[in-house]
Amino acid sequence: MNPLLKDHIAARLPDSKAGKVVNGSIRRSSAIVDFDLALDDGEFVLRQVAKQIESCIAKGIFPPGSKLPGERSLARQLNRSRNTIGAAYQMLEDKGLIRRLPQRGAFVCHASLTTSSISWGDKISRGAHLLDEPVLELLAHSRLPSFRYPLSAGSPCLSCFPMVPFRAAMNRVLDEEPLAALGIAPTQGQAKLRQAIAKLDGVEPNRILVLSGAQEGIDLLARCLIEPGDYAVVERPTFPGAIQSLRAAGARLLQWEAGLWSAEQLERLIIGYSPKLIFTMPTFHNPTGQTMSRDQREAVLDLAARYGVPIVEDDVYSRSTLGVPVPSSLRDLDKRNGVIYISTFSKVFAPGLRLGWLVASPHMVKQLSLIKMRANLFTEGLQQLALASMIRDGSFESHVNTLRKAHAALRSTAIRALEGNFTYGELEWLVPHGGLYIWCRAKKPAAVEPALLHAEELGVTVAPGRAFFADDPDDNCFRLCFTSLDAADLHDAIAILAKSWHLGQL
C-alpha cells in the first residue's frame, strides 16, 4: 500500500476499527485490503487509483463523511501528475461516491446517495414525530369519498347550501371589485369581511384575524404561545386538532373533565402545573355536544384572571343551536382581555370554503399575522368578499336559520334510528342541543373497534373515541355526525352500524 494512503486511512479510523498495518496492508476484522498500485502511464493509472479508492469506500475503510488524501500529496507519493489524480477523483465524483469542495478537499458521500432512495423517515424532525400519526391517518381515512355513509367528519347539511345567493354574491364581487378579489390581499383578511364579522360579533375590526378554518387559528396560537415543555389544559375528551397542534408545539397536556368543568379540578391543575393556556369548547362541545353553564363560565374566567392564564375559546358551533338559548361566550363575559376567541363558517356554511376567524387584542392579531405570513403571505379575496356581501345583505343569516331547521330534523332521525336499532343497556348517548354530533358510549366494556371496522367495510364511518383523548383514551366511545347525510341515508347508516355492533359483540 502507498505509505500516504496507509497513514491517512489509519489516522481516519478509530483504534478499534483501524487494526494494524501488516506488510503494507490494513488488517480490519478478518479481511486484508491491499492498495498496491502497479502504475502504468496514461489513463490506466487514474482508473487504477479510482478503482482502489472505490474498493476502500465499499469496504468501509473510507467511511461516509471521511476526507480522502489531498490530490497534491497523493500525486507526489505516486510520482504522477496532480492532473492524473484529479481525473481519478473526478471519476469518483461523477459516480456520486465522493464530493470535492473548494479549499477543503474530497469527502466520501453517504452510501444511500448511490445505492438507494433517500430515507425521508430519518429526516423528519422530533417535533413532527410528536404527532399521533395513527390517529390523524385514521380520521383522514374515514373521510374518504369512497365511503357511502360518512358519519365521521363534521359537515353541515350541504343540501341547504345557499347556492343561488352565493353565486350571485360571487358574480357581484367579480363585476364590482375584480382587482380586490383577485389581487394581493392583507394577511389579516379582506377589510370588508373583517368589518362584517365585527358587526356580526359585536367587536372592533382591528381585533379580527381571518383564518382558513378554526384549525389554523389553534395552530397559530400554539406556535405563538407555547414553548417546548410548557403545560396546557385541554378538556377530556376534546377536539383532536387541538391535541395535535399543541403537542407539535411541544406542550405537555393536562386533561380537564369536559361536561363537569369543575372549577376545583381546574384550580388544582393551574396551581400544580402553571399552564400556559386553557383550551376549551364551552358551547356544544366537540365531541360530547354539552354546553358549559353561565356559572361555570364565570368561575373559569375568575380562575384564569386570578392566576393569569389565557383562555382559548373554540366556539365553532354556537350558531348551530337547535332551539335552546346559548349562554354568552367567554369572550363576551371576559372583562380582563384574557380570552382569545376562534370560530369558523365551516360548520354553518360549507367546510370546503375554509373560512374562519379569530378575535384577540390588536397586539395578538399583529403577532399571529406575522406567524401566519411564514406559511401564507396573503389570503384569497373572492370568497371572503362574497361572504362579506352575504352577511351584509342578510342572506347568510337567512341560510343559518334554514340550516338549523334541517339539522333539528336530522337529529330527530338519528335519535329514532339509535333507539330503534340498539337495545336498552347496549349504548348510551347524549342528545345534543346544537352542533353536529352525537357522542355514544357502550354502557359496559364492549368490542367497539371490531364493530367499527366491520361497519367501515360496509361503507359506514364514525370517529373512534380514542382520537379525542390526550392520554388514557376511552375506547368504549365513538362520535357520529348526524348532519352529513340526508334522512334516508342517515337512518340506513345507523342501522348498518348497529348490525356491525351486534356482530362484533358475539
Characterise this structure.
With 506 residues, this protein is α/β, with parallel strands linked by helices. The chain has 3 domains: 3-115, Winged helix-like DNA-binding domain superfamily/Winged helix DNA-binding domain (Arc Repressor Mutant, subunit A, Orthogonal Bundle); 129-135 and 160-393, Type I PLP-dependent aspartate aminotransferase-like (Major domain) (Aspartate Aminotransferase, domain 2, 3-Layer(aba) Sandwich), CATH 3.40.640; 398-504, Alpha-Beta Complex (Aspartate Aminotransferase, domain 1). The protein is built from 21 helices and 18 strands. It has helices at residues 3-12, 15-18, 43-58, 71-78, 82-94, 112-115, 126-129, 133-141, 163-176, 178-182, 191-201, 214-225, 240-248, 263-273, 294-307, 330-333, 362-373, 382-393, 395-421, 448-457, 487-504, and strands at 21-22, 25-28, 31-33, 98-101, 105-108, 149-150, 208-211, 231-236, 252-257, 277-280, 311-314, 339-344, 356-359, 427-429, 437-442, 460-461, 463-464, 477-481. It has a 7-stranded mixed β-sheet with strand order 7-13-12-11-10-8-9, with helices on both faces. Strand 10 (277-280), helix 15 and strand 11 (311-314) form a beta-alpha-beta unit. Helix 11 (191-201) runs parallel beside helix 18 and helix 12 runs parallel beside helix 13. The protein starts with a helix and ends with a helix.
Considering the chains and any ligands shown, give keywords for the structure.
four-stranded antiparallel β-sheet; alpha/beta; 14% strand; seven-stranded mixed β-sheet; 21 helices; 506 residues; Arc Repressor Mutant, subunit A; 3 domains; Aspartate Aminotransferase, domain 2; 45% helix; Aspartate Aminotransferase, domain 1; 18 strands
